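Chapter summary example.
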Amino acid sequence: MGQYFVGINQDKRQWIHPHRFGDGLKFLEFSGSASAFLAGLALLLRQSDSVGGGDWTSLSSASDRFPIVGSWAGDNVSIVGDYDESQLYMKAMDNYRDVSFEVLKAMAKDHYTRESLRAGLKWRMEPGCKEMCSDPEEEALYRDVFKGPTFQEEANSGN
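The structure predicted for these 159 residues follows.
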């Protein structure tokens, strides 16, 4: 075994789960440079009233369409392990709301991020996968995450 971690916002009583992003639960499994979980956490913590090149999106309506983006900025946020004596991990699992899929939806609106997410989540969504895979309800949530055009596709189509 080992210690498992989640990202928790105590102020909003919300949490995000590394497995939902296709990453492992152990600290060293998601703390690498290609971590979708940490990218999701960064999107939650993003604080800016403007956008620019290389930003999440250059479309000004994006933050209106995804109010989860930046919603954790300035809050009491931690990456907490299940061995921590505070028992915050279990408290969050039992009493807080998982917002992982809301964050994934926002992330998947970017074409590059969508393809990276899809590749990283393949092991969670593969048919016939038995261990540590998503259940039918979670599979429906993943399908919803990847449904619809990306920001780039919308811009190219003139919508």
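To summarize the output: The radius of gyration is 16 Å.
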